[in-house]
Amino acid sequence: MKLSLIHWNDVYRVSPQRLNPLSDETIDVGQFAGVLNDIRDKWVKERDGLTLFSGDVFSPSVESSVTRGSHMDTQRHKPRQELIGAIAFGPEKPPYRIIPCKGVSSWEEYDVMEPVLGAEEDCGDVLVVKSGTDFRDLSELSLELESTPTGSVRKKIIKSITGKRHTILPSSRASGSMKKLLETLLSSVSETLKAPVCKTTTTIDVRSQYIRTGESAAGNWFADIIRHAYDDALCMKGCGVSDGVFICAGTLRGDSIYGPGIVTLGNILEILPFEDPVVVLQLDGATLWDALEAALSTWPAQEGRFPVISGLRVSWDSSREPGHRVLGVWLLQEREESDNETEHSRGTTPSLIDAECIERTSEGRKYKIVTRHYMSEGHDGFLAFKGKPLLIDDEVGQLMSSIVRKYLLGSQFVNKMAGMVHHDASSIELQPNTMAAISRRKRQLVVQHWKHAARQALDWARRSRSHYQDQLSVCTTEHMTSVDAYNGEEVRRGQYDIRKNHRFSQDDLPVVSPEIDGRLKDVRG
C-alpha cells in the first residue's frame, strides 16, 4: 500500500518575486498552485493522498503589514491541504470567529509547554522534510506501508519513503483559479495603500540629506513607536520593559516630504520597505558607545548608518575625529510634573529627564535595546552588535512597518471608541486594558477644549510610554474591522469587491506631530 504526500512550509509573499536579482523573470503563488495540482491529478484518487503545510504563514511580509495576514488565510486554504502543521508565526489574537469555519479548532487553554512522551528521546533519527519557502518549492513524497501482525497497536507501519523536490520555475504552468484570486488580492492590497492612516500637523521629512546628517523628527517618531512593541514579551521573560531604540537612518526610505495633512498606508510602506524583523539586544555600555561611534564616524557623508534613537540622549561633537565624537550617553525616563496653572488640565504632564549616565564599560548594567535584525548581525558598520544576546530574536520579531501599522490602527480604534461619548460603555465588549486606554483618551479630548492646555495634551500623547503601550496593545486584543481599511473578513470569504470602499470617519484618525527634541545633539551644530 502506498500513501502519497505533498508538503510545503514557510510562506510569506503571494506577489510575483524574482528568483535571481539579475533577472526580470518571476514566479508567484499561481504557478505554485499549478505545479501542486499537476501532482495531485496523477493520484489514483485524490482522497488517497495528503497535502501538508507547516511553518510560518501570516507574516512577516510587507503584504501582511497591509492585510494583517488575512490574504494568507485565503491562499493557505485554496490548495485544500488536509493538515496544517505548526503555525509558528501568527497573529497575537487569531480571529476565532473566522478560523474555526475553516476547520481549525481553538488552542485556548492548551499547555504548549507540556512534555510530549518520547519527544525528549529524539536522537536524531527522525526524518524531517523541509520544503523551501515563499511558494518556491514543494516536496512530493511516497510512503510505502505494510501491515503489522494481528494485535499490534499500529495497523500499518512505514516500510520505505521516497521523495522528490519540485522547484517552481518562471516557465511553470499557473493555476487559472489561483491566478484570478491572486489578481483580486493584489488589487485589494493596492487599493488599501491609498487609505489614510493618520494626520500630521508637521512635515514628515525623510530626505536623505536631512535624516542622514542629524536628528530628525521623522526618525524620532518612528523610533518612539517601536520602542514599546515588545514590552509585554520582555516582561514575561522577567526582563522588564525596553530601555531604548537604536536603529539607523537608512531604515527610513522614500526620500520625500509627507504632510502636513493626510498620511496614507502607502506612504508608511514607502518609508519602511524593509522585511527584516525588529529585535531586542542585551547590550552593555561599552557596546552602545562603540555602536554610536560607528554610526557617527562617517558624518558628514550621507551614510545610512547615522543613528536614530529613542529612550536615550546622546551628546556628540562633529568636529572631533571619527571614533572620538561621542561626548556622553544618558538613559531617559518619564517624570510626571504637577500642573497648577489650570483646573482644566489633565493634572500631570510627563517630561523626559536624564535618569542614568551610561558609562563606556562592559561591566555593570545591561540595557535592553530595540534594533533591526539587519543591524544585530553587524551589517552597515555595526560590528559591535554582532553576537550580542538576543532577548527577542528574528524568529518572533515583527517588521517595523507592521508595528507602526498596529500602533496607528490601535490609535484610530481608541479615538473611535472615545468619540462615542453618548454610548453606554457597558454594552461594548472590550478588554479592560482597552477601556483604560479609551478613558485616558477621553480625558485628553477634554483637555484639548482649552487652548492653553492643548499643547500639554499633545506632548503627553506623543511622549508618554503608556500611550504607545496602549495603542499597540489594543490592536492585538480587539478586532480592528471597524477602522481597518483592508476588509479581511470579506477577503477570507472570497467576497472582496474593489469597487466598495471600506468607509470610516477621518475624524477618528490619529493626529501626530513629530518633532526634534534634542535627544541627539551635535554640540557644534
TrEMBL record:
<dbReference type="GO" id="GO:0000166">
    <property type="term" value="F:nucleotide binding"/>
</dbReference>
<dbReference type="InterPro" id="IPR029052">
    <property type="entry name" value="Metallo-depent_PP-like"/>
</dbReference>
<dbReference type="Pfam" id="PF02872">
    <property type="entry name" value="5_nucleotid_C"/>
</dbReference>
<comment type="similarity">
    <text>Belongs to the 5'-nucleotidase family.</text>
</comment>
<dbReference type="InterPro" id="IPR008334">
    <property type="entry name" value="5'-Nucleotdase_C"/>
</dbReference>
<dbReference type="InterPro" id="IPR006179">
    <property type="entry name" value="5_nucleotidase/apyrase"/>
</dbReference>
<dbReference type="GO" id="GO:0009166">
    <property type="term" value="P:nucleotide catabolic process"/>
</dbReference>
<protein>
    <recommendedName>
        <fullName>5'-Nucleotidase C-terminal domain-containing protein</fullName>
    </recommendedName>
</protein>
<dbReference type="GO" id="GO:0016787">
    <property type="term" value="F:hydrolase activity"/>
</dbReference>
<feature type="domain" description="5'-Nucleotidase C-terminal">
    <location>
        <begin position="205"/>
        <end position="386"/>
    </location>
</feature>
<keyword id="KW-0547">Nucleotide-binding</keyword>
<keyword id="KW-0378">Hydrolase</keyword>
<dbReference type="InterPro" id="IPR036907">
    <property type="entry name" value="5'-Nucleotdase_C_sf"/>
</dbReference>
